[in-house]
């Protein structure tokens, strides 16, 4: 009887991992996710140990092209004007320094690709609406793998300025 139950349990677990691999948590819980990928360990350590409040906006190579930090500041936008994106070469670790935003999310399955993959910029766009929206506040981070669609930078209740660090972790 255990042999019959095990495949069903494993199928359910694999489906969960395959479809819902993205992470949303607070930086205080970062140690829980370090086993996911060596580059994620470096990214989370960098996020936890760096003061981004006064850092100049821009792109910083932490470990060559294997780990890059992009410090950005912007006004959040309406979801109706945006599309979901996905990457192939990099895992996104997005960390909110200040401000609050919504992010649309979905598992990348059979959505309509509206902009073909751009290898130089490592992204593609999907026209479908997100399956879910999450609220991300200061101190929180998200991890988006190549199987995860995401639509960041969205208005929460009203447009506001957000300071965010996006860590690009080479797959």
Using brief descriptors, characterize the structure shown:
171 residues, alpha+beta, Jelly Rolls, 6-stranded antiparallel beta sheet, 3-stranded antiparallel beta sheet, 2 helices, disordered N terminus
What would a concise description of this structure say?
The chain is α+β, with helices and mostly antiparallel strands and 171 residues long. The protein has a single domain, classed as Sandwich (Jelly Rolls). It is globular.
3D structure, described in words:
This protein starts with a helix and ends with a strand. It has a single domain (21-170), classed as Jelly Rolls (Sandwich). By secondary structure, it is α+β, with helices and mostly antiparallel strands. The strands form three sheets. Strands 1-10-5-12-3-2 form a six-stranded antiparallel sheet, with helices on one face. The protein has a three-stranded antiparallel sheet with strand order 4-8-7, with no helix packed on it. A three-stranded antiparallel sheet has the order 9-6-11, with no helix packed on it. The protein contains two helices and twelve strands; from the N terminus they run H-E-H-E-E-E-E-E-E-E-E-E-E-E. Residues 1-19 have low confidence and may be disordered.
